[in-house]
Write a structure and sequence with these properties.
- It contains 1 helix and 13 strands; from the N terminus they run αβββββββββββββ.
- By secondary structure, it is mainly β.
- The chain has one domain: Jelly Rolls (Sandwich).
- The strands form 3 sheets. Strands 3, 5, 6, 8, 11 and 13 form a 6-stranded antiparallel sheet that branches. Strands 4-7-12-9-10 form a 5-stranded antiparallel sheet, with no helix packed on it.
- It is globular.
């Protein structure tokens, strides 16, 4: 009887460990769920079979990948809300980001990373082979706000991203509009920096308030 109890206890422990390892860890500042699994591979099927791969769909959402953990520049001048629920483009929430140009560096930005705080020193990232573009929806609170740079990839280090692509000087309107980064010629076999935005005092001397939604690879 004692032997059977030991076997049962061991069995329950192994099952619970497996479940914990497979469930994503929720982080209220991440814009969704942070993947805890180490796998960096995705189905490398044909382009026609590629399904949208989200950076941000809603908060929370188990479709989200990457975490907005890589804050840069004058980080104290950024206000970041990953669950804003008014005037969204689609779903129930969107991202609301405010930049106040008061820091000495005169710029600030955020990298969405995998795993969290990965600046090329961690083995992570996703194989997003099959995607031909990254799309996102954005608008400004007043219009004429400028995102100085929008980027995917570009993280260097021991575990560097396989490529980089970007848009410069994205001027927003007061209405939701979709923007696209062409990835048709990009090597997406290992991307730890899934999305990046940068604001500057030069482009927004009075600061800016913007909204983002539906950030995804297609």
């Amino acid at each position: 009887m004692k032997y059977n109890k030991i076997k049962l206890s061991l069995f329950l422990f192994l099952i619970s460990s497996f479940i914990c390892a497979c469930v994503p860890r929720y982080n209220p500042n991440s814009g969704g769920y942070i993947d805890t699994n180490k796998s960096t591979e995705m189905d490398k099927g044909s382009i026609s079979s590629f399904e949208p791969f989200y950076v941000y769909e809603d908060f929370p959402s188990n479709k989200n990948h990457y975490a907005p953990s890589g804050w840069m520049g004058d980080v104290a001048n950024l206000d970041f809300d990953s669950s804003y629920d008014k005037s969204v483009h689609k779903g129930t929430t969107c991202l609301k980001i405010k930049y106040v140009p008061e820091g000495i560096k005169q710029w600030a930005g955020v990298y969405w990373q995998h795993p969290v705080n990965n600046w090329g020193d961690k083995n992570g990232g996703y194989n997003i082979t099959g995607a031909t573009k990254l799309t996102f929806w954005a608008k400004g609170s007043q219009g004429n706000e400028v995102i100085t740079e929008v980027k995917i990839g570009g993280i260097s280090g021991v575990f560097s991203d396989s490529d980089v692509a970007w848009l410069k000087d994205v001027k927003l309107t007061r209405e939701w509009k979709q923007y696209t980064i062409d990835l048709s010629q990009s090597d997406l076999s290992s991307i730890s920096g899934g999305f990046c935005i940068v604001f500057s005092k030069k482009d927004n001397p009075k600061g800016c308030l913007i909204y983002l939604d539906e950030i995804r690879y297609e």
